[in-house]
What we know:
The chain has 421 residues and is of the alpha/beta class. It has two domains: 13-217 and 338-419, 3-Layer(aba) Sandwich (Rossmann fold); 246-328, formyl-coa transferase, domain 3 (2-Layer Sandwich). It is 37% helix and 14% strand. The chain has helices at 22-32, 65-68, 84-95, 116-122, 147-153, 178-201, 211-217, 220-229, 263-273, 276-280, 287-292, 294-305, 310-319, 330-334, 337-342, 383-391, 395-403, and strands at 13-16, 36-41, 74-79, 99-102, 127-132, 205-210, 246-251, 254-259, 324-325, 345-349, 355-359, 407-408. A seven-stranded mixed sheet has the order 6-5-4-1-2-3-12, sandwiched between helices. A three-stranded antiparallel sheet has the order 7-8-9, with helices on one face. A two-stranded antiparallel sheet has the order 10-11. Helix 1 (22-32) crosses helix 6. The longest helix is centred in the middle third of the chain and has 24 residues, at 178-201. The two termini are 25 Å apart.
Amino acid sequence: MTAPASGPLAGLKVLDLSRVLAGPWCTQILGDLGAEVTKIEQPGQGDDTRRWGPPFLDDGSRDSAYYLCANRNKRSAAIDLADPRGAALIRRLAIDADVVVENFRVGGLVKYGLDHASLTTLNPRLIHCSITGFGQDGPYRDRGGYDFLVQGMSGLMSVTGHPDGEPGGGPLKVGVPISDLVTGLYAATSILAALAHRDRTGEGQHIDMALLDTQVSLLANQASNWLNGGQQPRRLGNRHPNVVPYQDFACADGDVLVALGNDRQFRDFCALLGLPEVAADARFRDNSGRAAHRDALEAALCPVIATWQAADLIAAMEAAKLPGGKVNTIPEILADPQIAARGLIQPMTRSDGTPVRVLGYPGRFSRTPPDYRRAPPRSGEDSRAVLRDLLGLSDEDITTLIGEGVVAETLRDPHPASERQ
Length: 421
């Protein structure tokens, strides 16, 4: 028996018509905060990411680890929206929903009567969030958008990676699908803002989220450097475009990250290294000078830093209250005591008893904390419960829909994972 939601969004009903990552990431956030999320999947296919592996779960579902990262706190109903009867079922779910999230191509839901104009006629209070690669208008509106494509088109890859001419030089994507993830975050924030407006006015609305828009908005200081200073951003490896020194340095046995945000920290760092003359050098006294003479500063610091053991330098910086650290691997950071203390890794159990571990919601609420009540479901495992509980269909009617292929269900394994060999 799944515990009832207890978060700040408890009672909010979200209909999730999205797949892959940006949309599911958004709805997972809403689910973590207590919303009741119903995920609609295509019978026999399910969310694309269920097959994005290896690795896969060895539990009979063969769901990928990728899928597990973005789909907890949801129920899955497999309904064929291409069948008029299936589309009618989804419209009925939308009538009672507070929020719909979808990532179909522009205009792709019109023929099913599931577009914003159709649904808002049935439910004027509905918040309808559409997530696409390039938005609902503009010359690129009909293009398909994927994270990798958007990272390149947005300019992000032009400032990520080592400079041309250095070993490994050239544009690089970020190591996680950052465009998808942040679009999901912005979508969740936008939905909450639209809900606040609805609480005041009773009005629903449409939210148009585009991966390209989101990623361009994240260019932040790099875009401002160009817009307001005429400085064209470029790839600097791990160096910061504005703050110096703010980069990695090679010690005798590994690399250390040094992130000095002001002149005092720079002077203290030079004192720690035994280089008071560097701190006193007129070229390096303030950040603008250090940025202008970046190469000369590195030439002065690198040979001395190279004589240190990495752990010793990190410890010395910590004692001096200077920000520094090491580059962790994923296994290292997930085993770090700080992550354990913050409770960021959450154990969950799927309906058949299979254990999974997920990364939890990072915000800590003093009164209404997020909860982890539903492990990522198998495709269609809640079809019968959703149609019965939310639409009031009889078991006989549901069985007929399943028999005719309009709805699919995944039966729970009668043999828990603990019993399987």
